[in-house]
Structures are given as structure tokens and as C-alpha cells.
Write a structure and sequence with these properties.
Low-confidence stretches: none
Largest sheet: 3 strands, antiparallel
Number of helices: 28
Distance between the termini: 78 Å
């Protein structure tokens, strides 16, 4: 590093007089002794970060620290820091662990204060795309007010980004320090509520119960509605811990009446239904669930909607009551906003039910609407499923070319074919479409490729389903011997497996 840097870092005469051992700490110390104070401050800051630092934000710090972009490029060339690219954005970090560990150990926290003061005025000007934890560093530097404000924002950012553990860590930081450094902007009650909900989501039910209990104790007599809601959360935590009797006692103690909020009324009925179901009282449970379902349009809480949906889905599926299940999905689909993260799954489930019932006319408008949304908000898995359903629906209506275009689009996007079973389903459907178009050669080629995937992945049922289609095509092209082989072997396997659907197809 010193040799490459030359006189930019250390004067030649100084370099000749230096007597540095081969040990890394000695080399690092000799280097740090020659660095400008502002650069040492910046390195002290970067070495303490657990997350990569946005390059765009770092560049705004250069001028106040007395540097330009050329100096920044020189630091990169000398290996003092590194650039990394992630999801279309550039970040800066100290990647070499021995160098980072030395800086963290041998530079004082006070050295960060200059950087933090400059950074403080720049935070919030432009929203960061990815979470970045800075609150702990402001706290160590003694700026407690900024630290607490940032910690609350960071916790929400981590939660939004799916990093629940780190979000919980920030909420715990706030819970510990708000007693010592009260904030006008952040209420402890808000922190405890978010903390309890996140702990429940992560399966930490005992911790969630304690968070909600602490929150309830902090409420005033006039906050009756909040007291009821928090008590229900405590009962839910007890239920999740299988403390059923305690949960039931907790709910009865609340004395829910019609005058409470729609959310509390629906939540209490769901909890009572779950308790009755666990006690083996299925009919009583269903009554509670249906009470909650009736009031659901007035409840603006997506997670509560999805919880009730998951329960009733299991009940209606077990009773083979497809009409009630479809009615439930339609209601949930109407209640969820278009921006909801649950909306894609609900729409896909609704399309699936209509297709299963062979009601393709009802499925088509939902599939088209889902396809439009899939370009921006859906995951690759759901986007691929929507395209496959559209292909099946258009195939039912005889629009084979339109059906083929959707299937080919899936095949041209490798990420959509990540799961072997789904890949086989797409290739098989495309082979059937080619057969209907009279392109028997293309159909045979696609089905053979699907058959090869089944052999590699040991997808037995799918393999014999494909052999039925191959048998039908060979009959059409007068390949009677091959057709007989495929169909007879499929029939033998289907009879042994008692697969009635496959027996009928092969026999016909």
C-alpha cells in the first residue's frame, strides 16, 4: 500500500527513515500517522458501520471535510475503502477486515463527531432506498436526541425491508433509553405497541406479552379503547403460547360490548372462535368467525382480514364448500387496497378457484386485472402463475395463439421457471397448445423436454401425465406402436396408484 501510494501518503525521505515491522498493526499505525485528520475522522466513522454507506451520501460529505472527488478516487485506488454495487445503487465500505478492525479499535469515538455533525444536516433530504443504522453512533457520540429520532425511523425501515430482528433491536434500544432521555417526538407507548406486534410476528410471544402488559400499565383511565385493544393483543399472545384458559379469562375480563370499535369487536370474535375451535367446539367457533366476517368491511386492518381468511379457508376447504370459499375470497379481494402486499395472493387464489370450477368466463377478468398489476407489484412466482392461468383460460376459449404467447413469455424469462414442477407444467401446457395448432413436431419436442425434467427430478405423476399427451399425439400422426407403449404403461401405473383421472385419460 505504501509503495503504490508513494509520496502522496508519505514523503520519500520520511519513507526512507521509517523502520516498520512486517506486522499489520504496525503498518496500519504508520499509515494512520501520515493521514490527514479529516480522512482519519471519515475512516473512523466508516469502520464502525455495519451497513454499506451510500456513495451519494458520502460524496456530500467530501467538501465540508476539505476533499474533492479526486481525493475520493485516490482512496479507492489505495484500498483505504471500497465501492460495492447492490440492486442498482453504489455503496462505500471498508471491506478488508484486518484494516477495519484496526481502525475500529485504535480510533476514538470522538473522531466521528465531525462527520456526524456534517451528516446530521444531510439526513432526510433524500430518502434512502435501503435501511442504514446510524442511531447507535450518534448515541455514542453524545447526540441522544438525534439518536432516538433516527432509531425510530430505522426500526420502521428495517421492518419495511423485512429485517425484523434488526427492527426489534432498534425498538429495544428506544425502550431502554426513552426513560433516560425523554423525547417529545417519540412516545414510549408507540414503541411498545410496534415492538409487541413485531415480537408476535417473529414468534416471540412471551416477549410480546410483556411488551403489551407494560403498554397497558402506561395507559390512563380515559384510554378505554386502547386498553381493550392492548388486552386483546395480550390474550392473543397467551393463545399463541397455548395458554388457552388464561387467554379465555383475559378476553372475558375485557367484557366486550357492541359499543367498542369495529376492530376490537372483530378481533375478540376471532380469538373466541380460535379458542372454541381448540376446545373442540367447531359450531360455536364458526359462529364467532361469521360474526367477525360480517363486520370486516368496517375494519381497516389487513393482517386481521388475512388471519380470518386463513381460518375460514381451512374450514370451507375441509367441508368442500367451494361456493362459500369463493364468496370469502371475493369479499377479501374487494376489501384489500390495490397497494396491499396480500392482494396478489388473494387474486391468484380467486383465479385458481374459478379455473378449478371450470368457470373460465368468471376467471378471465380477474386474470387480466392481475396480469396488469403483475408488471409492477407482483413477485416473479405470482407473475408466472398469472400468465399460466391466462394461457389456460385463453386455451379454453380456443384462442391458441394468444395462449401460446403467454407461455412463450414465461419460457423466455428463466427466473419464472425456477421451480422444476412449475417448469414441467408450463412446458406441458405449451406442448398441448402446439398440438391444438397442429404443430405436432413442436409439441412432441416440448413434451419430451418436459419428460426429461420429470426423469431428473423424479416427478412420477407428472411423467405419466405427459406420456398420456405423447400417446395422443402419436395417435394423431399414426405412430400407433409408440402411442400404445406410452398409454399402456401409463394405464398400468395409474391402476397401481389408483389414480382415477389418469386411468380415464389413458383408457380413452
Amino acid at each position: 500500500l505504501l509503495e503504490n501510494a508513494g509520496s502522496d501518503v508519505v514523503g520519500e525521505l520520511d519513507l526512507q527513515r521509517k523502520r516498520v515491522s512486517g506486522e499489520l498493526p504496525d503498518i496500519f499505525q504508520a499509515l494512520c500517522d501520515q493521514l490527514p485528520a479529516s480522512l482519519s475522522d471519515l475512516l473512523a466513522f466508516l469502520s464502525r458501520l455495519d451497513d454499506p454507506f451510500p456513495k451519494s451520501l458520502l460524496l456530500t460529505l467530501l467538501k465540508p471535510l476539505g476533499f474533492g472527488k479526486k481525493a475520493y478516487q485516490a482512496w479507492l485506488d489505495k484500498g483505504l475503502m471500497d465501492e460495492v454495487r447492490w440492486l442498482g445503487e453504489d455503496f462505500v465500505q471498508i471491506s478488508w477486515q484486518p484494516w477495519k478492525a484496526f481502525l475500529r479499535q485504535h480510533t476514538s469515538i470522538e473522531r466521528m463527531r465531525t462527520v456526524l455533525e456534517i451528516l446530521k444536516s444531510r439526513l432526510g433530504r433524500r430518502p434512502q432506498q435501503f435501511p442504514l443504522e446510524l442511531s447507535s453512533h450518534f448515541f455514542e457520540a453524545g447526540d441522544h436526541e438525534t439518536a432516538l429520532t433516527l432509531a425510530f425511523q430505522e426500526a420502521q425501515d428495517f421492518e419495511r425491508f423485512g429485517e425484523g430482528r434488526r427492527a426489534l433491536e432498534r425498538y429495544a434500544f428506544l425502550r431502554r433509553n426513552l426513560f433516560r432521555f425523554p423525547s417529545r417526538e417519540i412516545a414510549l407507548a408507540a414503541v411498545l405497541k410496534k415492538m409487541g406486534l413485531l415480537q408476535k410476528q417473529l414468534g416471540l410471544y412471551e416477549n410480546a406479552f410483556e411488551s403489551f402488559r407494560e403498554l397497558r400499565e402506561s395507559l390512563k383511565r380515559s384510554q378505554r379503547e386502547e386498553w381493550i385493544t392492548v388486552s386483546l393483543e395480550m390474550a392473543d399472545a397467551l393463545f399463541q403460547m397455548d395458554a388457552l384458559s388464561e387467554a379465555l379469562y383475559q378476553i372475558k375480563e375485557i367484557k366486550i360490548k357492541d359499543s367498542v370499535s369495529s376492530y376490537a369487536y372483530a378481533f375478540s370474535n376471532i380469538l373466541m372462535g380460535e379458542l372454541e375451535q381448540n376446545f373442540g367446539h367447531a359450531r360455536y367457533a364458526l359462529r364467532y368467525y361469521e360474526k367477525a366476517l360480517a363486520i370486516l368491511p368496517r375494519v381497516q386492518d389487513e393482517r386481521l382480514m388475512m388471519r380470518l381468511y386463513a381460518i375460514l379457508k381451512q374450514i370451507y376447504s375441509g367441508a368442500n364448500d367451494l361456493d362459500k370459499y369463493i364468496s370469502l375470497i371475493v369479499q377479501i379481494n374487494q376489501l384489500l387496497p390495490d397497494t396491499s402486499s396480500f392482494k396478489p395472493e388473494i387474486q391468484l387464489e380467486l383465479i385458481k378457484c374459478y379455473v378449478h370450477r371450470n368457470d373460465f368466463a368468471a376467471a378471465l377478468p380477474h386474470a387480466v386485472a392481475a396480469f396488469r398489476h403483475s408488471r409492477t407489484v407482483f413477485t416473479p412466482r405470482i407473475a408466472a402463475r398469472v400468465r399460466l392461468y391466462l394461457a389456460e383460460i385463453y386455451g379454453y376459449f380456443g384462442k391458441w395463439y394468444l395462449s401460446r404467447s403467454y407461455l412463450r413469455r414465461i419460457c423466455q424469462t428463466p427466473v419464472l421457471l425456477a421451480h422444476p414442477r412449475f417448469q414441467v407444467q408450463v412446458m406441458t401446457t405449451l406442448g398441448i397448445v402446439e398440438k391444438e395448432l397442429g404443430h405436432y413436431g413442436a409439441a412432441l419436442e416440448l413434451l419430451q423436454q418436459a419428460l426429461d425434467v420429470c426423469e431428473r427430478q423424479r416427478l412420477v405423476r407428472e411423467k405419466y401425465q405427459i406420456r398420456v399427451h405423447l400417446g395422443h399425439i402419436y395417435l394423431l400422426v399414426h405412430g400407433l406402436m409408440r402411442a400404445r407403449d406410452h398409454l399402456s404403461e401409463t394405464l398400468t401405473w395409474a391402476e397401481a396408484a389408483q389414480d382415477e383421472a389418469l386411468i380415464i385419460q389413458a383408457s380413452l
